[in-house]
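FAQ

Q: What does a record look like?
A: Structure on top, sequence underneath. For example:
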């Protein structure tokens, strides 16, 4: 049986969790893209979360790992960084802009992973003290977790897919 390179496995996991389609359920981007601003700001009576804020949380942690791979990636543009605040008056345009932020950070992250060699992926990160492939692999796991989280908030009319 042929051995599959780590990078190829990671890119497949990144793509499956973010865009799908996949065998294990809906992916993050299609789940978010289907939302209206009203749905994105619906506050779950169970946890107090809402999809827009979870989306920004996903963008932040993808940016964190991107910054671990490439320290020159810059700062995250929203504040506070983890669980950023929404605009005072949430609009569909502002939601779509933040969705675009998530997509752009994902694109940069995916591009960064494609640029890493198998050797670089196998190295231990000097600060995190874990192999780089584990840092990279945490992002599709995190995206999948929060996709289920978003889909279980009780948002009326959330499209399947």
């Amino acid at each position: 049986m042929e051995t599959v390179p780590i990078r190829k496995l990671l890119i497949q996991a990144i793509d499956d969790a973010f865009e799908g389609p996949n065998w294990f359920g809906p992916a993050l981007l299609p789940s978010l893209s289907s939302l209206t601003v009203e749905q994105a700001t619906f506050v779950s009576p169970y946890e107090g979360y809402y999809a827009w804020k979870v989306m920004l949380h996903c963008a932040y942690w993808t940016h964190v790992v991107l910054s671990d791979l490439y320290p020159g990636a810059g700062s995250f543009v929203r504040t506070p960084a983890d669980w950023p605040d929404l605009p005072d008056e949430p609009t569909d345009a502002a939601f779509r802009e933040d969705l675009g932020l998530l997509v752009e950070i994902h694109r940069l992250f995916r591009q960064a992973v494609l640029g890493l060699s198998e050797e670089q992926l196998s190295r231990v990160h000097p600060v995190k003290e874990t192999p780089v492939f584990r840092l990279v692999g945490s992002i599709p796991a995190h995206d999948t977790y929060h996709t289920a989280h978003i889909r279980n908030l009780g948002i009326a009319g959330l499209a399947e897919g």
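Q: Is there anything notable about this one?
A: The chain has seven helices and no strands.
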